[in-house]
Amino acid sequence: MADDNLSDEQLQQLLKDAEQRLRSKSKKQNKPSEISALSHSIPRIASDTKIDSYIKSTQHGPQIDVSHLVSEHERKLANSFRVVEDPITVKKRGDEEKKATAGADWYNLPRTNLTPELKRDLQLLRMRDVLDPKRHYKKESGKPQVPEFSQVGTIIEGPTEYFSARLTNKDRKRTLVEEVLAGEVTTGRFKAKYNEIQAAKTSGKKAHYKKLMAMRKGGRVSKT
Amino acid sequence: MSGASDKARFYLEQAVPQLQEFKELKIFDEDEIRTLVKKRSDFEHKVLARGSQAVDFAKYAAWEIGLEALRAKRCKRLRIKGSTTHTGQARIFSIFDRGTKKHPGDIALWMSYLEYARTAKANKKFKTILTAAIRLHPTKSELWLYAARWTLEAEADMNGARSYMQRGTRFCTTSKDLWIEYAKLEMIYLAKIAMRRKILGLDVDDTQEDAMEIDETTDGFTNSEDVIAIPDFKSNSMRPNLVERVEVDGEATKDPLTSPALNGAIPLAIFDAARKQPFFCASAAETFFDMFAVFSQVRCLTKILQHVLDAMVELHPIDPSTCSCYTRQPIVGISPLSAEFPMALGTSLSRLRESMGKTRNKAELAKKTIAWTEPILALEDLDPGIKTVLEHMRKLQ
């Protein structure tokens, strides 16, 4: 019987033998078989998913089915671990994560990292109308404000701009302020401007008085 | 009257006549009545308070049902007359009514209500509740099936059951459950007719002279078993005068195969309608096949099965479900202990070989084969030859 590879003929022979045996058997004892008796009972209409009623009759009278007392959701909660986190820290963390960048609409621009260099640069940008007398900008108003989200980048010129829009290596500096100061060394424009203003400002004040006093004392014009 | 405690008081006051009756007829003594009131008040407050749930109503109703049963028992034991079941029952019904009004979506509460009405034999009330529940939940196939089953088994009303099924199939087009059960209902009807004819001696059956069964479903509608138990009794044990007294219509003695309804036209029409539904697939067709295959008493079974199989071959020719049904078709309705079985099994074996060649999923088909051979192999006095062939079929891959 454990033979796995039975040929067709063997199987047919087995079936034929079985048929003969069963025929002789059924002649001998003519009784209804168990299966035929079972197959004579008619199945009933039944649903795959039955709706259970809440009330179950027990020997102590009608009782509520215990399975209904706790809802499915609550049972699941009761049967598993629940990790509780401090809601305040959770909220704080969420807020921080939210505030770290300006959001996807702004390509996740990071929050400003205000270094002293950047602070100077921003101040310089506010006073950019002073740098070049030929260039005019819209007037800035209000208190100087540091932007909430910002990033510092470097413009890299294209190969076609070699002669037209390029800074030479010597002119390149780390920050805007350094570039402007380097320019000042060569031109001296700010110093000249300062002196000009100073001369106008001090014309009738302390220096004028000192000069006057010196003239009164020595009776002559001061050395300078 | 708006607060929960006001309402509770109103409902408690309504129960006073019942309590007075308990006291007068001495069914319960004063202490017991006091506890009853206390308990009832607790329930009322719980039910009427905010956030009450359907289970609370069910708990209350269960307690009232228990109380009613206790009252009936005491009346019987102490031989007290003049106490009826009406007040208690009306109270239980009103609790369920309030519950289902407050939680109309809770189907388990509806089912509790229905079950109580059924066990209390309040048929009129039961029908009203059933209509209300079905109206609120027309897409729940379980409710339609429950209704059809009750109508068929408790009312013995085939037309009523049929109409429930037909109405249900209009709503439940996405689940195969109801459709299969509808076809089953028609098969049950056919099987009952077949048995009735056999008992009345209208069919002279040459092959099955030995065992005759009678359809006895008088014990009615219970939810426990899935099979209608039919007591064995032999034709000779039936008193001949009993059979002779039954006047058999001349029309009925004619060949039943001439009428299309007795020829399985209705189940097949249901099957054909189901084919157009969205749920229909190879596995749904297989479920139909399995359901039909159980009804070995019905004469036109081979025709029905052939029709189902034809449809399956037409729609899903290489699906393992189709192949499995094709394999099983020859042996359906033949007892493994009868002499015809080996021959049929031979056909089945050749069909299995053929299917294995063309099926889409061999492993699935092998699994199905193992599943259907299991109960046959479990038989005690199975012929060893058949056993070997079945084992061979199980290993076929």
Structure description:
The complex is a heterodimer of chains A (224) and B (397). Chain A is 43% helix and 4% strand. Chain A has helices spanning 8-28, 34-39, 72-78, 87-99, 116-126, 176-187, 189-201, 206-218, and strands spanning 55-58, 61-64. Chain A has a two-stranded antiparallel sheet. In chain A, a hairpin with a 2-residue loop joins β1 and β2. The longest helix of chain A has 21 residues, at 8-28. Chain B has a domain at 1-103. Residues 205-220 and 233-237 of chain B have low confidence and may be disordered. At the A-B interface, α1, α2 and β2 of A face α4, α6, α8, α10 and α16 of B.
Explain briefly what this protein structure is.
The complex is a heterodimer of chains A (224) and B (397). Chain A is built from eight helices and two strands, in the order ααββαααααα.
Structural class of chain A: mainly alpha
N→C terminal distance of chain A: 132 Å
Dominant shape of chain B:
elongated
Name the assembly state. heterodimer
User: Any low-confidence stretches of chain B, pLDDT <50, length ≥5?
Assistant: 205-220, 233-237
Q: Could you list the spans of chain A in which at least 5 consecutive residues all have pLDDT below 50?
A: 32-39
Largest two-chain interface: A-B, 47 and 78 residues
Counted by DSSP, the helix tally of chain B is 18
Rg measurement of chain A, Å: 50 Å
Number of separate helices of chain A? 8
Report how far the terminal alpha carbons of chain B are from each other: 75 Å
**Secondary-structure element order of chain A, N to C:** HHEEHHHHHH
Structural class computed from helices and strand pairing of chain B? mainly alpha
Shape of chain A: elongated
Q: What is the helix fraction of residues of chain B, given as a range?
A: 55-70%
Q: Order of SSEs of chain B, N→C?
A: HHHHHHHHHHHHHHHHHH
- What summary fits the major beta sheet of chain A? 2 strands, antiparallel
Strand order of the largest sheet of chain A: 1-2
Please describe the biggest sheet of chain B, giving its number of strands, its sense, and whether it closes into a barrel.
Answer: none
